[in-house]
C-alpha cells in the first residue's frame, strides 16, 4: 500500500514515515503543498496523510484541488487545530478522516487500514481469497488454515494481489505499489517475491499471464492445490 505523507515538521514526518513503514506501508514524504500537488498528479496513491498547516500551499487547498480533479483517494487530515469548525470544514471539503496532534502511530495506521477497506468495499478487516487469508492488522498470512511466515515485501505483494483478485497486475504496477521514492528496486524483484510466495503457499495461488503480469484467481478449484 503506497501512502503520500504531507507534513512540514521534520521530526514528526520522520517518525510517521518510519512508523507506517513498520506497518507495511510504502511512504512518500513531501514537506509542502506544492510538492504534494505534484506528487498527487504524477503518482497513484492508496491514501494521503495530509497536514493542514503547510508552506507554499495550505493543506485545505491541496484537498480542494484533489477533489476538484475528481480523485477519490482517501485523505486523512492531521492537524493541531482541535476545533469543531475546523473538523467540519475539512470533512465537508472531502476529507475521509481527521486526527488531532498529538496522536498514536498505531491509531494512525489503524485508521488508514479502515479507510483502505472502505475504498475497496471490504466489510471484514481480513482478506480471504480461496485458501489464502491475510490479516493486515496482525500482519498474518494463513494458507489452508496454517500460518505462513512471509517477509514484509512478500506480505505487501500478496495483499495487493488479493485486493485485486481476478485482475492482472503488471510488474510496473506492482513495483509502484510496493516501493516508495528512493528505494532501490532490482529488475527481477517482483519475480523473486512471486517465486517465494508460490513456494510458501502453492504454485497456482499466483498465476503468470505472459507478457502482461500476475493474477490471483478469485476462486481456486480443489485441484489447484
TrEMBL record:
The modification 4-aspartylphosphate is found at residue 51. Keywords: Cytoplasm, DNA-binding, Phosphoprotein, Transcription, Transcription regulation, Two-component regulatory system. Pfam families: Response_reg, Trans_reg_C. It is found in: Cytoplasm. Gene3D superfamilies: 3.40.50.2300, 6.10.250.690, Winged helix-like DNA-binding domain superfamily/Winged helix DNA-binding domain (1.10.10.10). SMART domains: REC, Trans_reg_C. Residues 2-116 form the Response regulatory domain. SUPFAM superfamilies: C-terminal effector domain of the bipartite response regulators (SSF46894), CheY-like (SSF52172). Residues 124-218 form the OmpR/PhoB-type domain. The keyword Cytoplasm applies. It comes from the Bacteria. The keyword Cytoplasm applies. Residues 124-218 bind DNA. PANTHER family: REGULATOR OF RPOS (PTHR48111), TRANSCRIPTIONAL REGULATORY PROTEIN QSEB (PTHR48111:SF35). This is Response regulator. It comes from Thiobacter aerophilum.
Amino acid at each position: 500500500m503506497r501512502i503520500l505523507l504531507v507534513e512540514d515538521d521534520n521530526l514528526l514526518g520522520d517518525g510517521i514515515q518510519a512508523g507506517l513503514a513498520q506497518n507495511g506501508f510504502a511512504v512518500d514524504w513531501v514537506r509542502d503543498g506544492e510538492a504534494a500537488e505534484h506528487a498527487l498528479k504524477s503518482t497513484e496513491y492508496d491514501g494521503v496523510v495530509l497536514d493542514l498547516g503547510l508552506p507554499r500551499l495550505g493543506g485545505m487547498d491541496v484537498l480542494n484541488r484533489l477533489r476538484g480533479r475528481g480523485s477519490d483517494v482517501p485523505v486523512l487530515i492531521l492537524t493541531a487545530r482541535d476545533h469543531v469548525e475546523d473538523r467540519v470544514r475539512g470533512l465537508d471539503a472531502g476529507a475521509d478522516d481527521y486526527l488531532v496532534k498529538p496522536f498514536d502511530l498505531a491509531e494512525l495506521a489503524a485508521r488508514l487500514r479502515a479507510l483502505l477497506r472502505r475504498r475497496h468495499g471490504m466489510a471484514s478487516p481480513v482478506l480471504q481469497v480461496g485458501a489464502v487469508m491475510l490479516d493486515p492488522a496482525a500482519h498474518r498470512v494463513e494458507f489452508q488454515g496454517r500460518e505462513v511466515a512471509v517477509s514484509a515485501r512478500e506480505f505487501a505483494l500478496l495483499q495487493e494481489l488479493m485486493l485485486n483478485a481476478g485482475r492482472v497486475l503488471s510488474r510496473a504496477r506492482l513495483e509502484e505499489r510496493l516501493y516508495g521514492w528512493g528505494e532501490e528496486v532490482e529488475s527481477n524483484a517482483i519475480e523473486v517475491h512471486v517465486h517465494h510466495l508460490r513456494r510458501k503457499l502453492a504454485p497456482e495461488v499466483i498465476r503468470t499471464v505472459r507478457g502482461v503480469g500476475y493474477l490471483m484467481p478469485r476462486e481456486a478449484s480443489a485441484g489447484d492445490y
